[in-house]
Amino acid sequence: MADIINMPRLSDTMEEGTVSSWLKKVGDQINEGDILAEIETDKATMEFESFHSGELLYIGVEAGETVPVDSMLAIIGKKNEDIASYINKQNSGPKNNNLNSDIEKLEEKQIDGKDTTLEQTNQSNYEIVKMPRLSDTMEEGTVSAWLKKVGDKVKEGDIIAEIETDKATMEFESFHKGILLHIGVEEGESAPVDEVLAIIGDKKTDIEKALKSIGKKDIIEEKQTKHEIPIQENISSEKIDNVKIDITKNQSKNEFVSSQSDRIFASPLAKKMASEKGIMLENLVGTGDGGRIIKRDIENFVPSPTSPKKLEKESSNKIQNSQIRKTIAKRLSDSKFSAPHYYLNVEFNVDNLISFREQYNSQPEIKISFNDLIIKATAHSLRLHPVINSQWSDNEITQHKHVHIGVAVAVEEGLVVPVLKFADNLNLNEIGLKVKDYASRAQEKKLLQNEIEGSTFTISNLGMFGIESFTSIINQPNSAILSVGSIVQKPAIKKDKIVISNTMKLTLACDHRTIDGASGSKFLQTLKDFIENPIKILL
Questions:
Q1: Strand stretches in 263-380, DSSP E
Q2: For residue 366, which of 441, 437, 420, 433 has the smallest C-alpha distance?
Q3: pLDDT tens, position by position, 180-210
Q4: Residue 32: its pLDDT value, please?
Q5: In the structure, what pLDDT confidence band is assigned to residue 426 with cuts at 50, 70 and 90?
Q6: Catalytic residue flag (residue 202)
Q7: 3-state secondary structure string, 361-427?
Q8: Distance from C-alpha of 153 to C-alpha of 203, rounded to nearest angstrom
């Protein structure tokens, strides 16, 4: 089935985009991560990359043309795929859509005989910041962190939040200036594209009126209590979730206190940390303003050994799935249930590999790992066996001449796979430095989009955790993945004598649609030669 590529919303203010130039033409083969076009937004001209693989079958917006967000840009699919229905739908759709849109706008203007758009135009002292669509496949985003808090001044270009998409965590910058008046999506929460993310404006802004103008319920009291900002004096009480809460101002500390004496005041971050560590908030004394429990209270909490034990009871924690975790689950499920996996298990002698590494690391300021050596040996082997470095589609098998090796890195949310581009052309030092850099930035969620896309083969190494052997699910669209276990000492026979030898177990998972058993076996024989005679990887 063909993939429809739509004009993305690359900023929260973008309503339409202009195709500055196409970098691919109809008939070209597209790989995930390829730059398709340059798109001019209301802020800048940006490269637009593909999140799909296949042939570029159709271009719907020519260079120089301007279209609204979500208009069809292109179609990517299988060679000779029938796309007439998609094109006909596109050609017939806009006219009807525009007509419906005009009717809806007219109805909005004439509610109760009043032109509501005029009222919104007069409210020019604030800007509604919405959840942006940061990729063409993004349907919702998760706020990983707010870098500004309510009450902070925001300048145009300031990074105000980190947003986790279905592809990566990206910094989100403000295209407006003013004061951050309202946060609509808390840290850790997810919201659909175009949901209200924040409001930026001046101090005179009527936030409640702004929210009502876009159809939001009256939630301003709840948000202000969370962020400890002054609320308008003409609002003394409000019913929130059918609970009456009186809010009074403490003049000495400029804070707000609820009349509910049993309510526990804690920051969202403190609540999250307490839940992860199994700490009951009622056991803590807050050191924040007004006794509010904050991050340091969770970090410094030590259970009292003399405190009476509570009755044991069953308990559990529910952890909201992150966008990365959802994407991992979907991709692995699709791979496992669509690609017929089979596994080839081997065990290599690594005595020479150990000696080679010791000699190599004896050079000043050089330190490579066994994993770096495995990557280098694998890259050379893939160059000699392109059938392993391949990709399946219904009409054809693509054997890549370039070697882009994905290296699985464990992070808190699961696995991230940064890609070593042209790994067969990198020396051992370059591989070691790149892997360390990627692993470090993966933990900090700082990897760029093009650094986690475009792999042609993947390596997963759990040997550092003491795992002797394991199997992995293929990281599609790759056709194979190599699982690397730990180095183990065991008795071996050499020249009719029993000696202690170092061995390593590896498992190659293959997609049977592209790789036959004999092809996989020949690849492992070549890899064995490189690993057991590592000097060859330098030749």
A1: 341-349
A2: 433
A3: 999 999 988 888 888 899 999 988 888 888 8
A4: 77
A5: very high
A6: no
A7: CCCCCCCCCHHHHHHHHHHHHHHHCCCCCEEECCCCEEECCCCCEEECEEECCEEECCEECCHHHCC
A8: 11
What domains, with CATH codes, occur in the chain?
A: 3-118 (2.40.50.100), 123-260 (2.40.50.100), 264-305+315-320 (4.10.320.10), 323-538 (3.30.559.10)
Burial 210-220 (b: 16+ CB within 10 A, else e): bbeeeebeeeb
Q: How far is CA 521 from CA 62, 350, 371, 531, in A?
A: 48, 19, 21, 15
The 3-state secondary structure of 150-204 reads CCCEECCCCEEEEEECCCCEEEEECCCCEEEEEECCCCCCEEECCCEEEEEECCC
Q: How far apart are CA 43 and CA 172, in angstroms?
A: 14
Catalytic residue, candidates 158, 402, 512, 529: 512
Q: Using an 8 Å Cβ cutoff, are 230 and 248 in contact? A: no
- Cis bond upstream, residue 364 (ω within 30): no
CA distance 62 to 488: 59
344 vs 347: CA distance, rounded Å: 10
48 or 527: which leads in pLDDT = 527
Q: Which residue has the higher pLDDT, 50 or 135?
A: 50
Task: Look at the block and give the residue holding tokens 């962190």.
Answer: 145
pLDDT in tens, 316-331: 777 777 777 787 888 8
The Cα 25–Cα 468 span in angstroms is 48
pLDDT top residue among 410 and 405:
405
pLDDT at position 218, please? 43
Q: Assess whether 512 carries a catalytic annotation.
A: yes
Q: Which of 218, 246, 394, 516 is catalytic?
A: 516
358: which strand partners? Answer: none
Q: Among residues 519, 468, 469, 516, which one has the least CA distance to residue 489?
A: 468
- pTM comes to 0.49
Is 403 exposed, middle or buried (CB count within 10 Å of its CB: 0-12, 13-18, 19+)?
Answer: buried
